[in-house]
Design goal:
Blueprint: E1 4-8, H1 12-23, E2 27-32, E3 44-47, H2 49-57, E4 67-69, E5 71-76, E6 81-86, E7 88-89, E8 92-98, H3 99-107, E9 113-115, E10 119-124, E11 129-133, E12 138-141, E13 143-146, H4 153-158, E14 166-177, E15 189-193, E16 198-203, E17 209-214, H5 223-227, H6 231-242, H7 249-254, E18 263-267, E19 275-276, E20 279-281, H8 284-287, H9 296-313, H10 317-346, H11 350-370, H12 376-379
Parallel strand pairs: 1-2, 1-13, 2-9, 5-15, 13-20
Antiparallel strand pairs: 3-8, 4-8, 5-6, 7-8, 10-11, 11-12, 14-17, 14-18, 15-16, 16-17, 19-20
This protein binds flavin-adenine dinucleotide.
Length: 393
């Protein structure tokens, strides 16, 4: 069955979708709201083994981007080592990449991308879908895939009662530092559950240190309030937050030329309706997980591959959407739930910090003693592109 697909959003899910659809023999045009510059282009993310596997299913190899991240070491602000977790599965090692590099790599896959096209509405036309964009233009196709992220317009077109974003009580910032010696193994992620703030850093094999911090912020800031935080203010605020912690946070911040402007962190509560007629949402638009678990991009890429397989193997579009939901909902919602628990640990009050560190330390010791890894079930997900989809009985 061959179709033409309108893909809304040229982020990770949208571009991966276009590659997957092409592989399944389906024509796709990607409509991206912005110009070529990627949103929050400065930040970095880690692609876990399941993300690398999903990319491999699309014949995509990000080995030329970033660097290997074989594991994460977790310490408390007092310098106590709470444990270590592997970020690998057999030979497959997680890869930490700049977000802008990943976007660029995906967009460079010879896709049909149209920039400056912000979806404002879509209607079923009987045998297809017609999308409307903010510049007044329209486009028609057999199906529409909403890969338009956290604040998805497609989500609301499909279900006007769909939930919106939920503020998690955390801010994000970070940067790239030069000329600072951390003493840590290159590539290893170092997470510090500090006395007042979470800090994570990793040294690129070339010596640059990539870092991020999650200051707690009880009330949500407006975009204008966020933009008004100056470089100097970030520096002062972060230095104050990490003043009493062990570890290199203060040196790393001091060695950073430009601290990211910062943004609020959100998730989306369970989205009950993923598809209607010939429209469907995938990626963050369908199940935005808190960034803490490092799986949002991974889920988006897995979604793209599985949806293309469902369209390839099902007798029609609605049947493909139903099959997709059966195959994906349980997994992504389990990941979102695990992400929420991790995010909650970062935002704890000073009083709750002590039991948190104890629980983490015990959990890590248990994992080390029994050889169990709490993320293993997430990492070991495999997609065989050639195998036809099989729905559970
Ligand atoms: C601080 C932080 C750290 C993270 N770390 C990790 C990590 O280590 N590992 C990991 O796997 N994930 C991580 N994530 C999550 C990951 O970045 C997201 O889950 C992923 O980007 C989701 O991809 P997406 O394509 O669904 O959405 P996006 O990448 O946000 O793309 C959505 C696209 O749609 C476009 N768009 C929006 N509205 C419209 C519209 N109306 N019309 C047309 N286009 C539109 C946007 O401009 C954008 O290009 C992190 C996220 C954050 C915030």
């Amino acid at each position: 069955m061959t179709y033409t697909a309108l893909v809304v959003g040229g982020g990770i899910a949208g571009t991966a979708s276009a590659v997957a659809l092409r592989k399944a023999g389906i024509d796709a045009v990607v409509y991206e709201a912005y110009d070529r510059t990627a949103d929050k282009a400065g930040a970095f993310l880690t692609l876990a083994p399941n993300a690398l596997d999903a990319l491999r299913a699309l014949d995509l190899d990000v080995g030329g981007l970033g660097f290997d991240t074989p594991g994460i070491t977790i310490t408390s602000g007092s310098g106590r080592r709470l444990g270590e977790l592997a970020y690998r599965l057999g030979d497959v090692v997680s890869r930490t990449v700049k977000r802008a590099d990943l976007y660029r790599y995906l967009r460079d896959q010879d896709l049909h991308l149209e920039y400056g096209k912000r979806l404002t509405g879509a209607v079923a036309t009987g045998d297809g879908v017609r999308a409307t964009f903010s510049d007044g233009s329209t486009a028609e196709g057999d199906l529409l895939i909403g890969a338009d992220g956290l604040r998805s317009a497609t989500r609301r077109v499909i279900d006007p009662a769909a939930p919106g974003t939920r503020y998690t009580g955390l801010l994000n910032t970070g940067g790239y530092a030069r000329g600072v010696a951390t003493g840590s193994e290159p590539g290893m992620m170092q997470a510090v559950f500090g006395k007042r703030c979470f800090f994570v850093y990793t040294a690129h094999p070339d010596g640059e240190v990539w870092w991020a911090a999650n200051p707690a912020q009880a009330t949500e800031l407006t975009p204008a309030e966020m933009a008004a935080i100056s470089q100097q203010e970030w520096r002062t605020r972060l230095s104050d937050l990490f003043r009493h912690d062990h570890g290199p946070a203060l040196d790393i911040i001091a060695a950073t030329g430009e601290i990211f402007a910062g943004w609020s962190s959100y998730d989306v509560p369970r989205v009950p309706v993923w598809h209607r007629d010939r429209m469907i949402v995938i990626g963050d638009a369908a199940h935005a997980t808190a960034p803490s678990i490092g799986q949002g991009a991974a889920m988006a890429i897995e979604d793209a591959v599985v949806l293309a397989k469902c369209l390839r193997d099902s007798p029609g579009i609605e049947a493909a959407f139903r099959a997709y939901e059966v195959l994906r909902r349980g997994r992504v919602e389990r990941v979102v739930a695990q992400g929420n628990r991790t995010g909650g640990w970062k935002a704890l009050s000073p009083l709750a910090r002590v039991p948190r560190d104890l629980i983490m330390s015990l959990a890590m010791k248990h994992a080390a003693r029994t050889g169990t890894d709490p993320s293993r079930w997430i990492y070991e997900h495999r997609i065989d592109w050639d195998r036809p989809i099989a729905l559970p009985a």
